[in-house]
Design a protein that fits this description.
The chain has 187 residues and is an all-alpha fold. It contains 6 helices and no strands. 89% of the residues lie in helices and 0% in strands.
């Protein structure tokens, strides 16, 4: 329905837009390629140093790049990553094993707190410290079973602390009431 000149102008505008988008996509893919090669180099350094968390982070970044890459870049990145997969799996296995051993130690320490006669405030702080250490370890072998033991021991160890904090709250409340009575009398 359009006269030839309007149709020409619209197709020319579309061509300019398309060229701009293709150039933008090409620039994105070039940056993705460059960044991914840097991530692979960093991945290699972390794997060689045995730094499993950092290696996993780099692995994930390159995997994300593969999802966004064109077919040529996907193949290049996949070929670069393939040699690292068995080594990263081995590092993860060792990390999980080491975390499990450390968690067993934390379970034992939490059990020791159950019978410990330290002051309730100090015991509460120690329980919190052990819980924070547990969180830092991440996933491990026998994770659920160890967590159940750890959590049950933490609850048992915290029982005297609950009583202490309940008494302390009651004392604070009674002190506040007493203070208010004194203030009223002074007024």
């Amino acid at each position: 329905d359009l006269p030839p000149s309007e149709l020409f102008n619209e197709s020319f505008a579309l061509e300019v837009t398309l060229e701009r988008l293709v150039a933008k996509n090409r620039a994105y893919l070039d940056k993705l390629h460059k960044d991914s090669l840097a991530h692979v180099a960093t991945l290699e350094q972390h794997v060689e140093a045995g730094q499993v968390n950092d290696a996993q982070r780099m692995w994930d970044k390159v995997q994300g790049a593969i999802k966004n890459a064109d077919e040529d870049l996907k193949k290049v990145l996949h070929d670069l990553l393939t040699p690292f997969k068995p080594r990263i799996s081995e590092l993860i296995d060792w990390k999980n094993f080491a975390a499990a051993e450390k968690k067993k130690e934390l379970v034992a320490q939490m059990h020791a707190l159950i019978e410990n006669t330290m002051h309730a405030a100090d015991k509460s702080k120690r329980i919190k410290t052990l819980q924070e250490e547990w969180k830092k370890l991440g996933h491990s072998v026998q994770n659920d079973a160890l967590w159940t033991q750890f959590n049950e021991a933490a609850h048992k160890a915290f029982e005297p602390c609950k009583e202490y904090f309940k008494e302390r709250k009651s004392k604070l409340h009674s002190n506040l009431e007493e203070r208010n009575k004194i203030c009223t009398q002074l007024e």
